[in-house]
Fold:
Amino acid sequence: MLAKVLPVILLFFIPPFLGNYVLFLSLIAINLGILTLSWQLMEKDSGWISFGQSIPFGISAYILAINPYLTFLAPVNFLIFLFLSVFGKSLFPFATFITSIATWQASNYLTINGKGGEEGFSVALQLPSEKIYLASATIFIVFLILLEVLSKSKIGLKIKAVRDNEIAAKSIGLDPIKYRMFAFFISSVIASISGILHAITFSHVSPSVFSPFYALFPFVASTISYGKYYTCIFGSFLVVFLTHALTAIFPEAHYILYSVVLMFFAVMKYAKDS
Amino acid sequence: MLKIVNLSKFYGKLLVLRNINLELDDGIYCFFGPNGSGKTTLLKIISGFEKPSSGRIFFNGKDITKMKPEKIVKIGISIAFQLPRVFWNLSVEQNIFLACMDKEKVYSIAELFKLKKELQNIPRKLSQGKLKLLQVSMAYARNPRLLLLDEPFAGLDVESVEQLLDILRNLKQHKSMIITSHRPKLLRGIAKKFFELKGGVIAGSKENPP
Amino acid sequence: MISEFLAASFFSVFAISVLLCYRAGKILNLSLSSISTLGAYLHFNPFLATLLGIFAGFLLHESTKKLEIARATIFSLGLAIAIEEILRIIFKKEYIITHVQILELFGENVIWNHFIAGIISISFLFLFFSFLFSKKSKTLKIVEEDYELAEIYGIKTERARKIILSFTGGLIALISSFYNQGIIYPTIGWQNLIFATVIATVANVFKEKSYLFAIIFAVVIICLQKFFL
Structure:
């Protein structure tokens, strides 16, 4: 465990010494790294590829901005994933992606007392970047350890069993829906916390939190970092820094990176499996 | 132990089982019959994976007709399917562990089912015979009162059949089983009663196989 | 009502394209969204839009012919994003405003290009249903059912899939180049796809009659939209 966590801690130590801009980008990378952890729990352990992690991410950010006292309700949005799982594993990526796009479009019309809409809402809670960075880094490490422990635990094994074969799981007394709900709930909690941190970082939330950038980010970051819990942060840093570096040359270059990763993943995974 | 009352099953207009009435005590029973006679469907209904169109099933006095399969497993009925239903990406050790949730028991079960050398392998690397043994060992590991084995000898070579028969003879003393098979003669001396299923009805029962 | 009728015909064709790709092509073709956007941006040259739509469909087929549905869908999403990015690079504009010509038809003002899109859509629907009621439709039904079985019966499934993906790509690009008028924006294709997919998902429940129900639902939804909005 220490061998997995130590490189991450070392990575987190570097940005504060490299100036405010690097610190800010690193903060974004860590927040999105937490989002990627949530995605990996769903994909790696429970076998459901989600292209809709932006849904709990964005909803929790909006709740924080609109009414911080209701933030504890944010993880309830795992029910959306549970509902979409009715479409089956093959169509789940598509169903979640379409839902996140639909939410993106719908959030443009969300206004309260004349505020919101396309411009979004501001977040009352404002903290200095260093404090949010420390909080985000700590939360990431805590979730990393928790997920590694969960993965190796009895519950983690049962989640993997349900992933592999639901009928076999039923035949040994496991209720697939119960374990699926559990995995979805934990994933939603982690994604919600990531969304809250994101909202605090920017002191603002707008419909763009539901955009394909956030919906697809965990998939891309995870794919280019070999899909392990402890490596996803490196993937997250790579995507965030690469995006910002390329944006100076070419606006919204991350979408090109996304398209390449998506297409290569599909083809290379087939090549590996065959 | 097991009581089936007026059980029928339709798939659309197709009648698969018709008015099955059975009362079984402890022991090993064999159901045989041609393809499409309803043997697999009967086991699936008892284990909760299918629901009957009409009729009731009682296990130790409890009505299990509408129970979910995962609940039926917990009250003491375990099934090993004809087609392997195992956890393909987990090791054999993990597969058996999930069934019994007891690390020490895993090794004794693996020993009993001759899977000790395969514990670190994943099911994809096992032969057909070993896969079948794994399937049965997982069902056994639940420590059920009643074990359902659907065509356990299907697709096995002579050596694997002998291995499985050996295990069944060992289990005979302390486990009740319902075994479906196209080869009832294999269970001579093991099963105490043989039921013939034909066209979805019980055509007859004998102490010895035909 | 004529505008609603034309809108329903457009979305029926879109939904049927989604259904064909899913049932016979074994892929949830998300790239149809960008192909629709491509058609919209190339409103000045529908012929070029059609050719590029066919090419995109062909490229999708070649890249995904050996992939199972989930992977193929992921690839189509990557292709969709790639097409959108290429459009953004070439056109550099976020929004394009097109000039619309109004046609008076039976006392109702109808956008001329919508009328053309409607004619093309209705022609396709007529031809498609003529095919469905002919003996040759058995080929489609077998391909939808099982690829391996289709191969045993001597049907060239790979060729069938290639035709379906290329044809639907070209068709969507063509009708989108006429239908999407006024303000053209980058996510216009996604809105069309979402709408068509909702129709296709509900219609798919009706299995053999899904194509017919796709038309019925498109009409119902467009009428409901007019009634409520």
In short: Chain C has a mean pLDDT of 87. Strands of chain C lie at 96-97, 102-105, 108-111, 183-184. Chain C touches chain A through 28 residues (CB under 8 Å).
